[in-house]
Amino acid sequence: MRAMVIVIAVFSVLFTTRAFPYVDSLWIAGGVGSPGDLASVEVWLQYEGGGVTDSLEAFDIPLTWDAQICSVEAITVGPDFATWTFQGTIDNNGTEGPPALPKVGLSAYTYGPPIGPPFVERGTHLVATVDFRIFDMASPGDSVYIDTLMQAFSPPLYLGFMDKMGLLTYAPAYAGDFISVFYCGDCNGDGWVTFLDLSYLNDYISHGGPAPFGSGDVNQDEVVDADDLSYLSSYLFDGGPPPCGIDPLPCALISSLTDSVEIGDTVICCDMTTLSLPITLKNTSTLMGMTFALEYDTALVVCDSVRFNSGLFHDWSQETRIDTDSGTILMAVWTPSLIAPHHLSPDSYEAATLWFSSLVPPEAQEGISQIDATFILPDHTVSLVDHNQTVLSPTSTPGTLHISSHCGDVNADCTITFADALYLRNYYYQTPPGSPPPICEGDVNLDGTITFADALHIKNYYYQTPPGSPPPCEPALSLIPITDERRVLE
Ligand SMILES: [Ca+2]
Ligand SMILES: [Ca+2]
Ligand SMILES: [Ca+2]
Ligand SMILES: [Ca+2]
What is the number of the ligand closest to the CA of 443? Predict the structure, then answer.
């Protein structure tokens, strides 16, 4: 530390003497890592000095950072300066000299031949690699900026470069950078753990893709292999343990008003026991994946199966889960590779279909007429991932279940009309031959057999002739309002 202070002092004196208008640069290439990891930060300089004949004799670079999440373990001088006299000083606690800040000093010099190693030519050079240890208690998503100490002293101390004459220093332009703490499992480094990390990790394991940002060794067995893919998949889709045992923050969605997901309406009518529900996607964003996390009303239906449109997503990875106890559905589909991603162009698509079995007993349906129930609850989570790997929250609409009376709706179109009367009549008289039997209850007058009288019962109800004609399966007099529209049909 003493050497650093001395060198800084020398530079501060020299710098005040004179400065050339050449543009020298100093910049940081930040590091990333998970808690406990080493994050290597590179310090680079570009020396222009006094012009084409100039070269570099010394540099002195004091840096600082917020020591809440990491400390420096080691400094390795860059290869171009390996033969110089180098002093890398580490003061993680800010106790080894003013200012009372965590700091490192990167100082090196040569006197040049014949006394010392050669000067270094103008150009771009790696000053040093600084290895920061990210603390175990650092929180995923934390970051810390590596700054200069230029303004920390009063009067200011200047980081600087010294030319081969040993007389001049230059205050370089400075560009700092961050050390960031990635979640274990945030392999693509976007700050969240999602299915994109599966794609990224698979690229790395199987297709020579780049190394993960956040650790890919999510099961912590010291190797990154297919077991980690299984582990991460289990976490994402089956409630398995989180990567490295650390629960990542839930993904923050960016609201997108121009993308929408509509969960369609569906109907239980007649004695239907199964129903299907389409999910329509209207995307203005080019997509790389999507997740539908839905909840349904377990009092009304049970989910039997869910499926993405195989024509759209046949080469994408997908997972679907149904928990019939809690009434939750998880569906995800995504590009299997981030190196060669498959995109879904902006358009309107039937993206998926959900199949349910009705839990509404037929006798309940008889007493219910056109009850609408929101059975896909509005607090579901639907997200889309665009081609920039941004996770979007589209506008979405819930699904509604229409429960319709079934007695007398013999053609199962969910309404009772004159067509039902015709349908029954045709069946009874077999005109034309082969006219099918009622799909729903056809014995609407409840006399135990299907006859022409049942067709008449429906017709009379529909046209209300005579007024007060009872609805199907309700022989008692029941006053039903009659619309003008129905009279016109007559
Ligand atoms: Ca990620
Ligand atoms: Ca592993
Ligand atoms: Ca009907
Ligand atoms: Ca009958």
Answer: 4
Fold designation for 195-245: Type 1 dockerin domain (1.10.1330)
Query: Which ligand is closest to the CA of 140, given by its number?
Result: 1
Longest alpha-carbon distance in the chain = 122
Q: Ramachandran region of residue 123, left (φ > 0), alpha (ψ -120 to 50) or beta?
A: left
Q: State the distance from the centre of ligand 1 to the C-alpha of 335, rounded, in angstroms.
A: 14
Closest CA to 235 of 244, 224, 226: 244
What pairs with residue 144 in β-bridges? Answer: 179
User: Which residue has 């019962």 as its token pair?
Assistant: 457
What is the Å distance from ligand 1's center to 196 Cα? 6
Residue 21 Cα to ligand 4 middle (Å): 104
Q: pTM of the full predicted structure? A: 0.59
Residue 461 C-alpha to ligand 4 middle, in angstroms? 14
Dump pLDDT digits (tens) for 3-56: 444 344 444 434 444 445 567 899 999 988 888 889 999 999 999 887 888 899
Question: Could you report the per-residue pLDDT of 197-243, keeping only the tens digit for each?
Answer: 999 999 999 999 999 988 899 999 999 999 999 999 999 999 999 99
Task: Give the environment of ion ligand 3: residues with CB less than 5 A.
Answer: 409, 411, 413, 420
Spatial distance between the Cα atoms of 300 and 306, rounded to a whole number of angstroms: 17
Kindly identify the ligand whose nearest atom is closest to the C-alpha of 413: 3
Residues of the chain with CATH 1.10.1330: 195-245
Q: Which CATH architecture has domain 254-403?
A: Sandwich (2.60)
- Given a contact cutoff of 8 angstroms between Cβ atoms, the answer to whether 49 and 122 are in contact is yes
What is the Å distance from ligand 2's center to 70 Cα? 25
Query: What's the CA-to-centroid distance between 305 and ligand 3, angstroms?
Result: 28
CB atoms within 10 A of CB 407: 25
Task: Sort strands 177-181 and 31-33 into parallel, antiparallel or unpaired.
Answer: parallel
Is CATH 2.60.40.680 the classification given to domain 2-181? yes
Going from the Cα of 415 to the center of ligand 3, the distance in angstroms, rounded, reads 4
Domain with CATH 2.60.40.680 in the chain: 2-181, 254-403
For residue 194, the ligand closest to its alpha carbon is: 1
